[in-house]
Design brief:
ABC transporter involved in vitamin B12 uptake, BtuC
């Protein structure tokens, strides 16, 4: 069903880390980035005010030993810091973590099932098709709920992925570099159709919100759909062994009793839903599902049971780091995280394309 870059022959780095050590290092990095992300923003935030709020809430003695006016002033400042943290900073950080982890996991399982290291959701038409579906329902059913928009976007993403997979069946089995090129052209065609419709309906500005991923509008109550992507990533980990067997080839999957078609449809639905939810909630973010799985597979190999936790942690860390860079380089203005990651991802993608034939 797909052209293959044999996963058992993927290039490995000359050094390797144990899965446990890599996951511990990734967790430490992610924790440091979370603290940094919670501290950076246009609105003033003080960790001292946060701790004062905790003390004020946990101990009535704090108010007893403080003077009335001073206690009230401190309490107001602490309450403001806590409100900023709960309403804006924590939801934004959670949304970034869920987005980065789920997109990276989606890219990893897609590469495994298609047996090609150069594909990710935005290179199989999923992201572009989701954007087209979102535009259509916004134009013809503008009062639709966020859930209905996600369902239409998911349906369009599934259709786009099925069309792409039928297209690549006609490619020569050994010409694996043609798969991402066909995906890029296919995605560009869908994007051109979407942009044409947006121009005709004067909706280009609305479309731009979904084309460039940005977390600046994330507040409490506007990101909860992303928890679905986390659940799907957990589902992929539960089925990791079956997906790994499917990636080894049709004959091995049949001999071991794994239903290849069922697993393929699981991957299609998972990638489509993750892409749709991310586009609806924060907008498209390219290359996350490409560079993170390739980095992890070069360090740890291709067994999904070992790779997926590291892929999720690194994906979350990379997107969080790019968001922090976007918030810092033109402070107090923000550069969309899709722009930062797009620049980095394009360079890594070119490096992978040029390095892979030599390494093989």
């Amino acid at each position: 069903m797909a052209r293959s870059v044999p996963l058992t022959q993927s290039p490995r780095l000359s050094w390797s880390l144990s899965p446990r050590l890599l996951n511990v290092l990734s967790l430490v990095l992610l924790f440091a980035l979370i603290l940094l992300s919670l501290s950076i923003g246009v609105a003033d935030f003080s960790w001292q005010g946060f701790w004062l709020w905790l003390m004020d809430s946990a101990s009535p003695l704090f108010a007893m030993f403080s003077s009335g006016a001073a206690s009230q002033t401190i309490s107001q400042a602490a309450s403001t810091d806590m409100q900023l943290l709960v309403v804006s900073r924590i939801p934004r950080t959670i949304a970034i973590i869920l987005t980065g982890a789920s997109l990276a996991v989606a890219g990893m399982i897609l590469q495994t099932v298609l047996k090609n290291r150069f594909v990710e959701p935005s290179m199989v038409g999923a992201t572009q098709s989701a954007g087209l579906g979102l535009l259509l329902i916004s134009l013809y059913l503008p009062a639709s709920s966020l859930l209905n928009k996600m369902l239409v976007a998911t349906l369009c993403a599934v259709v786009g992925m099925v069309i792409f997979m039928r297209l690549i069946k006609r490619l020569p089995p050994t010409d694996y570099l043609m798969v991402p090129l066909v995906g890029i052209v296919f995605g560009a065609i869908i994007e051109a159709v979407t942009l044409f419709i947006a121009y005709q309906t004067e909706s280009v500005q609305m479309l731009s919100v979904w084309r460039f991923g940005d977390f600046s509008t994330i507040l409490a109550g506007r990101y909860e759909l992303l928890y679905l992507t986390g659940a799907l990533a957990i589902g992929a980990y539960i089925l990791a062994d079956r997906l790994t067997i499917v990636g080894l080839g049709d004959a091995i999957a049949i001999n071991l009793g794994v239903n290849k078609n069922l697993m393929t449809w699981f991957v299609i639905m998972t990638v489509a839903i993750i892409s749709s939810v991310v586009v609806v909630t924060v907008g498209a973010i390219p290359f996350v599902g490409l560079i993170v799985p390739n980095i992890i597979s070069r360090i740890m190999g291709d067994k999904l049971r070992h790779c997926l936790p590291a892929v999720a942690l690194m994906g979350a860390s990379f997107v969080l780091l790019c968001d922090i860079i976007g918030r810092s380089i033109r402070y107090p203005y923000e550069v969309p995280v899709a722009t930062i990651f797009g620049v980095i991802g394009a360079g890594v993608f070119l490096w992978l394309l040029l390095r892979q034939p030599k390494a093989s």
